[in-house]
Design brief:
Blueprint lengths: L1 H46 L30 H7 L7 H25 L7 H16 L2 H6 L7 H13 L3 H14 L5 H8 L3 H21 L1 H10 L18 H7 L4 H28 L3 H15 L9 H5 L14 H11 L2 H4 L7 H4 L2 H12 L18 E2 L17 E2 L5 H21 L4 H18 L4 H9 L2 H29 L1 H24 L31 H4 L9 H16 L3 H20 L5 H22 L9 H17 L1
Antiparallel strand pairs: 1-2
Helix pairs in contact: 1-3, 1-4, 3-4, 3-6, 6-7, 7-9, 8-9, 8-12, 9-10, 11-12, 12-13, 13-18, 22-23, 22-25, 22-26, 23-25, 23-27, 25-26, 25-27
């Protein structure tokens, strides 16, 4: 019987392993399909470029008279011009397809080589899923989107460096590939210094010799272009765009954007570049000796882009590779660095930071600052750290008992009671609100449809006897102090109160913060469907009804653009009213969580005053508030259904210890 039980247990373990392998294979297949779909999307976007613009921004040697740099758009080295010379024999359509496919294949190869370069030991799940996930992220990143443009060769040097470091046996072949990469992108010569510091001196020497030979070949073949590139433009500075343009994400470009110039700017740039190179290469060598060779390569690449006189965005693929480093002792903090890098490399800077003058130096240099952080500042964990393999775990608890057996619907949605990382929360809130604003602004804004829907809503309110908007609006206008109060409340409390509540919950009650944040986010997402499906004109934009816009002033209803207000937001995104919806969310959270009665009273008053404000200022119909209440109720209901009730079954270990200490003190007090 013991043998049978052991045999049965072995079969059960084998079945569990087989089931886990099947699920892992399914997830891997889905990720590869996603990566392929994103590659097809990127190819379709690139192939829409008119054929005349393919390689038309510069004169290829042997095909057209003049210099490579006569058009001022080619940013590559003269050696890159020699490499591209054979392409002039292809027809434009064939060249478009071939160039796009080869570029995207290079990106896929980078993902595969980088995944195999992860430090050992790597969990099997991570090793299998890293390659398709890396390829999918790179396909939507800003560097790949720009590198796939005609004539750009930024992806090839990255692949050459990775092949030289990870896949090519022998020092001299590896050095040859590195030298070719540096001949295409000269700042990559810093990889020779990395090889020298890590003891691979034959490879470093071979890289330097190959770079010198390729550069000498281009001087012999294209002396005029070589003089233009190396002397007149100092390794390409000013080619392809103004040095102070936003596309130049290097230290030199950032200093120029800050208003510096002349010898002082050059001296400061050289000093900063030397410091970044010294610190960055020392860090990279340390990580290489620690067994984190992929991180060392990424750090060196970030150094190369930052110190280059012209570090274009399509050369920033190195920053994405820096996600290989681990940051933070807590498991909850491990996601912060990868998320920050992916957001910085995939989203425009205007999405990451608000359009404020004080933030312009940061917003204009987000990719550069990310590269500098990876090169010199981010404290990546060494493999000798006890937290490398076993970070401080996140405290999870089960939800409280529910009346319905199928709640929570998502059993893997484990309740987290610890405080989330502040930087990650701020990033996600900012990006989430920016995406919400863009989607809201892009919602259908057909004036006839919006006014027709408003007439329908107005008719329903008349039938129900709740069409009070006109009477309330004019009563408030005739009472100046009341009009001023509602205008101030409408414009001021919409953002301040929800953010204040989230801030208090984050600091004092992190478990409830996650519950409240999820419900607010789901309610806001549901509201977007209303904006898209039911564009609605607010009372202030309905002609012939006599409403007075107390907040924005008199609107020219004969002009569909309604002046500058249209540029701020979609004027017909009124159903449901998130002004009321967010205030109702605030009221519910305060009433549920506030410990004192007067606080609960304030929670009740806030949505009541808000609904009066949106009606009095003629910005919403009464039924808009009903719609806002419905999406908020749906947000709370979805959180309940998906993750279970707000209460938990067990308390945190610290809370249990505190309770035990209180019980121990109780006899002494008595």
């Amino acid at each position: 019987m013991a043998d049978a039980a052991e045999h049965g247990g072995a079969n059960g373990r084998a079945g569990a392993i087989g089931g886990g392998g099947a699920r892992l294979g399914a997830v891997r297949l889905v990720l590869w399909v996603l990566a392929g779909a994103l590659a097809v999307r990127q190819a379709a976007a690139v192939l829409r470029v008119p054929p005349g613009e393919w390689l038309g921004g510069f004169h290829l040697p042997g095909s057209l008279p003049g210099s490579l740099y006569d058009a001022g758009q080619f940013t590559g080295t003269p050696f890159a011009g020699l490499v591209l010379k054979p392409l002039t024999g292809f027809a434009a359509p064939s060249l478009e397809v071939a160039w796009t496919c080869v570029t995207l294949l290079f990106v896929a190869a980078i993902g595969l080589v980088a995944a195999r370069g992860l430090p050992d030991p790597v969990p099997r799940r991570t090793a299998l899923l890293a390659a398709p996930l890396a390829v999918a992220v790179m396909m939507v990143s800003l560097p790949v989107r720009e590198a796939a443009s005609p004539g750009q060769t930024a992806v090839l040097p990255v692949l050459l460096v990775l092949l030289a470091v990870f896949r090519v046996p022998g020092d001299r072949p590896a050095g040859f590939l590195l030298g070719l990469a540096a001949a295409l992108q000269p700042p990559l010569l810093v990889f020779a210094a990395l090889l020298w510091l890590t003891g691979r001196r034959p490879s470093a020497q071979a890289a330097a010799v190959t770079f010198a030979g390729a550069t000498a070949l281009s001087w012999a073949s294209l002396p005029r272009d070589s003089w233009t590139y190396w002397v007149e433009h100092v390794a390409g500075t000013g080619l392809g765009g103004a040095p102070d343009g936003l596309a130049n994400q290097s230290l030199h470009g950032a200093l120029l954007r800050l208003g510096l110039g002349g010898p002082a700017e050059i001296a400061l740039y050289l000093a900063l570049a030397a410091a970044v190179t010294w610190f960055g290469l020392r860090r990279a060598a340390r990580y290489a000796r620690d067994g984190q060779l992929l991180l060392a390569v990424a750090v060196t690449g970030c150094v190369a882009v930052a110190v280059s006189p012209a570090g274009w965005r399509h050369q920033l693929l190195w920053v994405l590779l820096a996600v290989a480093g681990k940051v933070g002792e807590r498991a909850a903090d491990r996601r912060v660095w990868p998320v920050a890098v992916v957001l910085a490399m995939t989203l425009p800077s205007s999405v990451l930071l608000p359009n404020m003058t004080a933030l312009a130096p940061v917003r204009d240099n987000v990719p550069l600052l990310t590269a500098l952080a990876a090169a010199c500042a981010v404290p990546f964990l060494p493999r000798s750290s006890p937290y490398w393999r076993a970070p401080v775990p996140t405290v999870h608890v089960r939800p409280g008992a529910s009346r319905w057996a199928r709640v929570p619907l998502l059993p893997f949605w484990r309740r987290v009671m610890t405080r989330p990382n502040l930087l990650l929360e701020l990033l996600l809130i900012r990006v989430g609100y920016s995406l919400y604003s863009h989607i809201r602004a892009a919602a259908p804004a057909s004036r006839p449809l919006a006014e027709g829907n408003a007439a329908e809503v107005h008719g329903i309110e008349r039938a129900l006897g709740i069409d009070i908007e006109h009477a309330v609006n004019h009563a408030v206008v005739n009472t100046p102090w009341l009009e001023a109060f509602f205008n101030f409340y409408y414009t001021s409390f919409h953002f301040v109160v929800p953010l204040g509540i989230l801030g208090v919950l984050y600091w004092r009650r992190p478990g409830d913060y996650r519950w409240a944040r999820a419900s607010l986010g789901l309610a806001t997402v549901l509201a977007l469907f209303g904006f898209w499906l039911y564009p609605l004109a607010p009372p202030r934009l309905m002609p012939g009804l006599g409403f007075i816009d107390t907040v924005h002033g008199v609107q020219d209803l004969a002009n569909p653009s309604y002046g500058a207000m249209t540029a701020i937001s979609n004027q017909y995104a009124a159903m449901p009213s998130l002004h009321f919806g967010w205030s109702l969310w605030c009221g519910i959270v305060i009433v549920v969580l506030a410990p004192k009665g007067w606080q609960k009273l304030l929670g009740v008053l806030h949505p009541l005053i808000t609904v009066c404000a949106i009606v009095a200022t003629a910005n919403h119909w009464v039924l808009d508030a009903v719609g806002g209440a419905l999406v908020v109720a749906a947000g709370f209901a979805l959180v309940h259904v998906l993750s279970g009730p707000r209460g938990v079954r067990v308390s945190l270990p610290a809370q249990r210890a505190a309770a035990a200490r209180e019980e121990a003190r109780a006899p002494a007090r008595t």
